[in-house]
Structure formats: structure tokens, C-alpha cells
Specification:
Elements (H helix, E strand, L loop, with lengths): L5 E7 L32 E5 L8 H4 L2 E3 L19 E5 L3 E5 L5 E5 L5 E5 L30 E8 L5 E4 L6 H8 L17 E7 L2 E7 L14 H5 L7 E7 L3 H19 L7 E7 L6 H13 L5 E3 L8 H39 L4
Parallel strand pairs: 1-3, 2-4, 9-11, 9-12, 12-13, 13-14
Antiparallel strand pairs: 1-8, 2-7, 5-6, 5-8, 10-11
Helix pairs in contact: 4-5
Length: 359
Amino acid sequence: MKFLDQAKVYLRSGDGGNGCVSFRREANVPRGGPDGGDGGRGGDVVAVCVDGLNTLIDYRYRQHFKADRGTDGMGKARYGAGGKDSILELPIGTQVYAEDGETLIADLTKPGESIVLLEGGQGGRGNIHFKSSTNQAPRRADTGGEAQEMWVWLRLKLIADAGLVGLPNAGKSTLLSVVSAAQPKIADYPFTTLHPGLGVVESDDRAFVMADIPGLIEGAHDGKGLGDRFLGHVERCRVLLHLVDVTAGPEGVADAYRTICAELAAYGGGLADKKVVVALSKCDAMLPDDIAACRAALTDQGAEDIHEISAIAGDGMTEALRALCRIIDAEAAAEKAAAVKAEAESAGDTIENITEPVR
């Protein structure tokens, strides 16, 4: 299945059904009065977050979503049926933006979350509602409410525990293929990976999700090489694994580290504040003295928690994965504690408002 993380779609809710003008006609009931029913309400356009999807590819081939119109009211006080809603099933992590591409409408991060993007038109009232002591045979009925319409952008940001960052050809896809069942394309030239990917990594007795994004280049935060879209996929990660190719030598390692750090800081989105585990990759291809020189170059640049790994040989992988797990667990615990604290504060405010004496 092809990965697609952005799509533009047209949405339109349903018009409301018209109210009915009708009068009761039965034997021996000469003046039965009005009995025109209301029109049905138009269908809504609803976005729903569902599990099991990881791409927006379905929205490349279908770009128009329209809810059904409400049924018109009928005689004998029969009300029209409501129009069927149009449901957009979206992957976890999908954001819905207005047509300008900047106004955020919804951010769906949990399965089952839903939001009504457009409401259907109200059904028109039938003449049964307009009867009065001075107008016992009204011939008035309302037309149904008009539908709403708009274009929106759908943008998918992958939700993962750890994210892989680094220059092109730093060994990110190779690492993901070794530590998980993912099968990304691997080759010995830059930009082999063109689309983000996910893999489930098992370390000791636990598992976590790792995201691999295409290699970043200088200017990625401004969209060069589509870097701004790729960086969005690691915004939600709890920790970043920064791979630096040790075969570039001390100067190349230092330049690569500075470039990626600068792009993360310039992009924003909290990436510069995330916990980072730095790993010198492809260490099986270098001598110990050369690796030590590269490690010293990274230390001079302010890098901490540096690991020496080789995805192919398996060297250093266990320690690097355990380091990621420790940070993921710590961040998850901190998020849970913050959520509990916020809930307690909210409950305290509610109780205080309820028990506040009336003055």
C-alpha cells in the first residue's frame, strides 16, 4: 500500500428537507386542519479516527464527500427522514486543516475520536406548526436549511514512541529493518527512503513503535527536500534516535550532527526540546581509533549519550534500544502524571465552584 500523508478533499453536508403543506381529509371530518409534516435534517460530514489505517491513500482517488439531503415532509403529519451522514475514516494522528492550510480544525489522536466538520441543514417546518386561532388553515411551510461546504486539507502525522533522524544514507532504514519486521527499501545511495515508515521494535520484555523518515538535508525546515513534511512525523515521538554515519570521519560527523540539530531547532514543534539518543552507525566498517575520533568530535559538539552501533553486525544495538526504552518509559510516566494532575485540578475547581457560598 502506497504511503500518502497529505490530501485535499471537498466536503458538503446535506440540505434539509422541505416542510409540507397538507390538510387532513377524511370522511365525516370536514375541517380536519393542517397535517403537513416537517422535513428531515440534512446529513452531517463527520471525521472519525479509526485503528488499522496508516495512510491517506484512499483520499487520493476519492476527493468529494457529500452527505445526503433530508427527505421532505408529507401529509398525515409524517416527518421526513434525516439524511445519511458522510463519514471520513481517518488514521490515528490525522490533522484536519482549513483550505488555507494553516487553520487547524481537528487533531485526531485516539481511536474512536470524532468531530462534526459540517452540520446538515435543518428540516423545514410543515404547516402543522402554523395553525392558530386566527389562522386555522395555514398554507405556509418552511424550506429546508441550506447545506454547508468547504475544502479541507488532511495531514497525517505518524504517532510513534521513537523517531529516527539523520542525514540521507545514515543507515536509518537498515536499522529499522533489523530491529523490526518492517521492510523499507535499502540501497547504498542517498534518498533511498522517500516515504515515512513504522516498525514495532521489541527490546527485552517490551515493545515500542519506531518511525523512520527520509533523510534530512540543510534547509529541510523550509521545505527543502520536503523536509518540513517529514519532520512533522516525528513531532509526536517521545525520543529521537539521531544516527550519524561514522564513515564520514570526524569533520563529517561534526557537520552532520550540527546540520540535523539546526534543522530540528529551526522547524520548531518542540523537536529541539525532545530527548535524543545519538548513535554512530556503521561502526563495523571503521577501526576503533577512527570511531574514538568521531566520538570525540560529537562530544565537542555537545552530544550526550553516544552509542556505537552496527545494524548489520548487531553491535551495540541492545544498549541503544534499552536507552530508548528508558526515555520512553520516563516520558510516558511524566505524561500520565501531568494528566492526572490536570484532572485533579479540574475536579478541584468544579467542587470549589459547587460549594462556593451564594452571596
